[in-house]
Every structure is written in C-alpha cells, then in structure tokens.
Amino acid sequence: MVCVLYFADLSSVQTAILEALDQRQTEERNVLMDIIQTARNSAAIIREAKQMSAQDLKTQLLKLEKDERTWKQVSMQAALHTDEGTLSKSEKDVMFKEVAQRRSEHQAILTEAMVYKLQLEEQSHRAQNPKMSDEESLEDLSVVLLADLQEKQATESATVQNLMQDMEEKELQEVKRVQRIAKREGWFDALTGMLFQLSSSDPTGEEAGLEILDKTMANMEEDWKKEKDMLIAEAKSENASEEELQSALKQLEHEQELKRKAMAADLEQQRKKMMEKLSARRRQTEEKESEEIRAAQLVLISESRQKKQKESQEKERSHQSSELQKRLEARRQARKRTSQEEEEDEGVKRSLTDEERFSRPSTKDSNPFASMKREKTALDVTVSDKEKQDTYTKLMREQTAVLQHKQESQRKQEEMLKRRLAERQSKKQAEVQSLLSLGERQKTNLLAAKQDEKEKQLERMKERIKRERSKSPGKRKQDAIEEPELKPSIKK
After folding, report:
1. Burial class of residue 270, CB neighbours in 10 A (0-12, 13-18, 19+)
2. How confident is the model at residue 307 (pLDDT cuts 50, 70, 90)?
C-alpha cells in the first residue's frame, strides 16, 4: 500500500511538471508570433537593418545574445532567491512589479533580435526565391521559424521526460518549482536558441551538395537539348532526307536516354549518401541540444537547491546566534540579580550589627569575631569574546551532530525503502515466473494427454479392423453372396 501511494505521488508530480512545461511552451509560441509582428512594425530598426551586411547582422545578433544571457542571470538571481510562500501581500506586489519590468526588458531584446534575424534570413531566402514578393517571403519565414521552435520544444519535452525517470520525489518537486519560476519569469530557452541560431543562413556542405546535384541534372538536360538542336541544324545544312534525320534523332535519343539513366542512378546514389550525412548531422545537433537542455535543467535545479540550503543554513545560524545571545543575556541578568541580592543581604546584616552594638554593651567574650570586618564578594559578570566563541562553536558542533544524525537516519530509511521495493519487485518477478512455469507444465501435460488419447484411439481402430478381418470364412462367403444380389436390385 505504501509503495502504491509512493508511485502515485511521483506520477502526480510528473504530470504537474509536464503540464507546467506545456503551458510555458504555449506561451513561448505566442511570444514568437508577438515579436514577429512587433518586429515587422519597427520601421526605424528595419531601415537600419536593411543597410547592414550579413556579417554586421550576425554581429548584432551575437551582441543581443550576450545581453539576453546577462538578463537571464539577473532574473535567476532574483527569482531563485525569493520564496513566494513566505512573502506578504505588499512584498508580492513589489515582486510582481519587478517581474513585469524584467519581462518588458526581455521582450525588447527579443524584438530587436527578431528584426536582425528576419533581415538575415530574408537575404538568404530572396537569393533562393528571387520571384517571391517581400510579403510572401516574410510569411514563409514566419512559418519556418515556428516550425523550428516546435522542433526545439519537442526536443526539450523529450529531454525533461527522460530526466524525470531517474529522479526521486524531492528532486521532482524541485523541478516543478523551477518550471513554475521559468513560466513566471519568461525563461524561453527554445525561443532564444532558435532566435540566435545562425546556421540557417550558412548552408552545410551536404545541403550545398544537394543543390549542386539538382543543378547538375538540369544543366545536363539543357546540354542534351542543345545537342539535339545542333543535330537537326546539321542535317538540314547537309540536305539530309527525313528518314535519315529521324534515324539520327532516334539514335541520339537512345544514347541520351542511356546517359540519363546512368546519370540519374549516379546522382541518386550521391543524393542518398548526402542525405544520410545530413540526417546524421541533424541527429548530432538534436542530441547536442538535448544534452544542453538537460545540463541547463540540472544547473537550475542545482542552483535552486544550493540557494535553499544556503538560506536554510543562514536562517539556522541566525537562530542559533539569537539563542546564544538570549542565553548570555540570561546569564548576565542572573549574575546581576545575585549580586544585588548579596548586596542587600550585606546591608541588612550591617544594619542589624549596628543596632545590637548601640542597644547593649559589648563584651569581649560575647562575640570574638565582632571586630573582624566581612569583605564583599566580587562576582565577575563579564564574558570574554573567547568564551562567546567557544560557546558558539560548541552549539554549532552540537547542532551539526544533530543534523548529521538526522541525515544518516533519513538515508537509512531511504535505503530500507529501496530495499523493500527491490524485494517486493523480486517477489513479484518470482511469482510471475512461477505462474509462467505452471502454465508451461499444464500446457505440456495437456499436449501429452491429447497425444495419449490419439494413440489410444488409433489402437482401438486397429483392433476393430483386426476383428473385422478375423471373421469366419462362412461369414465372409455370405457377405460375398449378398453383395451380387444387392447390385441387380439397385439397377432395377
């Protein structure tokens, strides 16, 4: 029962993480469409970008990428240090205002980057499609960017799902917290990765090779057409007959068809190799992106965990320091009260001694110690810095020992739970194996029983045939006489 509840809790946390991730990715796609529309309406930046070369546009994108990374570092420092559950209403209002300000700055960076990105992509797109209008080119680029973003989001989702498989509930809760903060702060890693990626404007060797293959086939077709026209012109100049012209054309077309088939087979083979290389390169890129996403998620989780531990330690240290100050203050007050009480007792004794001296005559033997004066006991109520440090060190050592004992106890409980789960899993596997073995034995017994039944039926049939054959000769003769008599009656 405990095991079922444990896995149910894990499943619910994983579902919550995937829902938060899906919500953030939906918002990320909406932000993409917003910054594309805003970039199209930014006339001043567009005029400036159109005057830039491709290298200048790339330089601007690299600069904005650095600004975006700086922005994210600031956002992470502010978000991961803040525990929303402990804030008051006024503090939450201040926090949300700061989040809105940061997201506005981020939106400005992304919009400016989108202007340069569209201009860079449009230059490459216009070179490949010179007849397409600017509006059509921009629409195509918007679709391509959205498709690239969705591909990166799919990689991110798969990476997060694989990452969750090896996590315990405590780590999953931390991932859930990070996803919630990422949605609130606007950490759109897939969008920024797509936006600052420059490989689309620089085709790889495989992509350039595919374009060359397509152009090669088209050039060959044009050469063959020119060759055919030259043959017709040569035949007309030599006053060749129609039959000779058609025969020459037929021979030329046959030769060209053989060349075309050989060329097509060679180009197809080269295309296949290039496509395999291009697919391998894309797989490597996807794997690299997946590893980067995994590393980024782990870094966020680690930083969040370290910050929480640091805050907890600082809180515990502050609490211990406060307790130490309270104890020291209590000691000072106790010593002060003791000193005051002793002074009061001394004053009372002194007043009583004076009264006795004036009320009755003194004798030497009545109080032999009366002439002796009692000295006042001085108490040192000050505490040195060394004593404070020693007390503080002792308290910290005791607290550390308690925490270590608690962690060790928790680790033993986790190991015990894992061991019980492993034993239960092993027991289930043994039960399943036992059931499978029982089924195999029953199947074998059933087949053996069927085989025995078949053999018994075969034996009975053989005995029956043997009995039929072993009938008396008179009986067989009577049967032989009755058989011819039956045949004429059938004919009639």
Report:
1. middle
2. low
